Automatic annotation (TrEMBL):
Residues 27-193 form the Streptomycin biosynthesis protein StrF domain. This is Streptomycin biosynthesis protein StrF domain-containing protein. Gene3D superfamilies: Spore Coat Polysaccharide Biosynthesis Protein SpsA, Chain A. InterPro entries: Nucleotide-diphossugar_trans, StrF_dom. SUPFAM superfamilies: Nucleotide-diphospho-sugar transferases.
């Protein structure tokens, strides 16, 4: 079904312009009910590269996503969780219009922080509730993005992939990536296009701190304070 939709769209659009959606999933039902269902409504070309981790055999998001990205065909890569549902049928179309206006655009997502304020276009939980203090009307600059969804241009990601050594698990690899982009002079943004994310996030504080220790060690030379959707860290204390 995805292939048929993609080929139909390619008759109306330039080859290579679209979204390569990359997702590692451990629950096929959630993948189909949320991400796939919302993708099938979209008005622009896309491909879905879905990596089956239902057996739990893979233990590193960064390495797996890097490998998948090398096989992707479109000019924007979108890394998304299995339980993310795009809020409208023109979500990808609207996101693309915004991305073209941003410079120097590194990565864009749906939740992030520049300082202590959470900027988000996300509802999560069951029943759903909006996680931000205010709804956004335009893209907003942030330091790091939440890992539930991130978009990056193909040429940037193939040149600056996820760091497989700095973050080798399943959390905060996107936050670390955003800091890598900042080091290279790029900016990161939260888009004003809403999604639903069933999960409320990771609550394992020990696991979060262990990963943050590695991220702090990597970025303390160019960033004094790291703001993420799961907490704030002063790099000068490490």
């Amino acid at each position: 079904m995805l292939s048929l939709i993609r080929n139909l769209f390619l008759k109306k659009h330039d080859e290579g312009k679209g979204f390569s959606v990359i997702c590692v999933y451990n629950n096929r039902t959630k993948l189909n009910d949320y991400l796939v269902k919302s993708l099938n409504r979209q008005t622009v070309p896309f491909e879905l590269i879905a990596i089956d981790n239902t057996t739990g055999k893979f233990n590193s998001a960064a390495a797996l996503l890097n490998e998948a990205a090398r096989k992707a065909k479109y000019d924007y890569f979108m890394f998304a969780h299995q339980d993310v549902s795009l809020g409208s049928k023109k979500w990808l179309e609207s996101a693309r219009k915004d991305l073209k206006k941003l410079y120097p655009f590194g990565a864009a997502g749906v939740a992030g922080k520049l300082d202590e304020e959470l900027l988000a276009s996300v509802s999560h939980g069951n029943p759903p509730h909006f996680v931000g203090k205010r709804r956004l009307r335009k893209p907003m600059r942030v330091q790091t993005l939440d890992g539930c969804l991130m978009i990056v241009r193909r040429e940037i990601f193939l040149n600056i992939p996820f760091d497989e050594k700095a973050v080798d698990g399943w959390i905060l690899y996107v936050a670390n990536y955003c800091l890598d982009l900042i080091r290279q002079g790029y900016r990161n943004y939260v888009l004003p296009h809403e999604v639903y994310h069933e999960s409320t996030g990771c609550d394992d504080r020990d696991a979060i701190q262990n990963v943050m220790n590695k991220i702090i060690a990597r970025h303390k030379d160019h960033i004094k304070t790291i703001y993420t959707t799961v907490g704030t860290w002063d790099t000068c204390q490490k």
